[in-house]
Amino acid sequence: MDHSSYTCICWRWIGLAMVMLTVSSLRLFAQEQSAQEPLTLDQCRAMALKFNKELAASAQQARYARYTMKSYRALFFPNISLTGTGLYSTIDGTFGIAGGNLPTFLPDVSGQPLPNGGFAYFPGVEMDYQVGMVYMGGVSVEQPIYMGGKIRAAYRMSRHGQRMAEANRSLVSTEVIVKTDEAYSLLVKAQEMQEVARSYHALLQELMKSVESAHRHGLKPKNDVLKVQVKLNEAELNIRKADNALRLAQMNLCHYVGLPLNTEVRTTGRFPEVEVEDNLQTNDISLRPEVEILDQKVEIARQQVKLTRSEALPQVGVMANYSYMHGVKLDHRTLFDKPQFTAMLNVQVPLFHFGERANKIKAAKAQLQQVQLERDNLNEQMLLELTQAANNLDEAQLECEIAERSLKQADENRRVSHSQYVAGMESLSDHLEAQALWQQAWQTHVESRYQLYLKYVKYAKAAGRLN
User: Fold this and answer.
1) Calpha distance 155→161 (Å, rounded)
2) pTM of the model
């Protein structure tokens, strides 16, 4: 390899490396830009539904059930098959019967043959045979006429199984949405808690400057400075806790939406809107996918009884075959060289099996009753869950309203306390207490809105309205 070729190859590799570096830089830039944009709840839901593995598995389960249903539906139609067989053998030989005189017979009075003493000449038989190449091909058609309802029951079971798989997919989607909403609202809460901690810290910093200035001029004792410093230290610790909580909330949301855990995501900064009805529904669970799953499970058990009963009923089927066979030479003539048609009717009637099939039918009926009782029990539990979720939502709404009033009152109390402290009409301890109450009221307000949305999501899931 000369120097010019080596230099050309080096420049090609350098160019390729620069292109790959540029593409990687653009991808990182796109990720950073997407990470800086705040995510909405709808975007998080869409990402979670797209990347969730449980939902993907339920989709494949629904696909499996759909193809299974189609395979059972095909049993109603004839089964057509093509067969072909070839054989080659070197067997050949001669088959012969020696000739000679054979005795003759005449019947007596009773009709029995008796030898009459005469003879007849038999010339003998000489046959040559050869197997050689033998081949056969044909088309057969099988059609069940009556199988005791087995095919119909199996097809209905597969159809109910498909509906149950679709309902299960809807249930998994609902659970994914609930988890995503919880993670999203938790991140909003962490962001607001961080804002509360930093606002309270900034307020104490301003107060610290004022108290230190007053202490330098001899207007405040050293003890007041230490009191504010203690509160300021607590506020710094609260900021660190809020930052850690925010980081964990971001990782939790990334886990559900399919992003890398170290991605810094932000939300719009507010909880999703909650519209609570005046009269919450507590007696209708028909929209829940669990109800559909239980109903389809009962229908499958009912069809299982019919499928088991079909084994004790007659079965009728027909088969037709059209084939052609060629081969086997006898005296230099092909023995098989014509097509043939065959039709067969098969009827099977079970008579007695010492109670085997009767007991199977009884077992299937018992299983049907078991599934029905389980469905009724779970329906009652879902009604209780809906009632409890409605009560929790009503209490959370009232708690949120009270927390909002308390925040306004605490903010007004802090403002009045600040004015009185500046005028020298209130002690530093009372003023710090007013600020602490304002911080606690703000945290309670954030927590109440967080709980309100969680209770709303759980109520919507319990009522089957979360899509």
Assistant:
1) 10
2) 0.76
- Tens-place pLDDT, residues 387-418: 999 999 999 999 999 999 999 999 999 999 98
CA atoms within 13 Å, Cβ hemisphere of 402: 8
- Please give the Cα distance from 342 to 323 (Å, whole number): 8
pLDDT digits (tens, 9 = 90+) for 167-221: 999 999 999 999 999 999 999 999 999 999 999 999 999 988 888 888 887 778 8
CA atoms within 13 A on the CB side of 287: 15
Contact (Cβ atoms closer than 8 angstroms) between residue 389 and residue 458:
yes
The amino acid sitting at 372 is Q
Query: How far is it, in rounded angstroms, from Cα 50 to Cα 378?
Result: 30
CA-closest candidate to residue 208, choices 228, 182, 180, 238: 228
Q: Using CA atoms, how far apart are residues 439 and 281, in angstroms rounded to an integer? A: 36
Structural domain containing residue 53: 37-82+146-313+356-463
Place of tokens 């046959």: 127
Q: How far apart are the first and last CA of the chain?
A: 67
Position 396, amino acid: A
Domain-embedded: residue 187: yes
- Please check whether residue 74 lies inside any domain of the structure: yes
| 448 lies in some domain | yes
Query: Is residue 130 in some structural domain?
Result: no
Q: What is the total count of domains within the chain? A: 1
- Sheet-wide strand order for 79-97: 79-97, 125-146, 315-330, 333-348
CATH number at residue 48: 1.20.1600.10
Helix (H) or strand (E) holding 125: strand 125-146
Task: Give me the residue label for tokens 């065959």.
Answer: 342
Count of CB atoms within 10 A of residue 308's CB?
Answer: 21
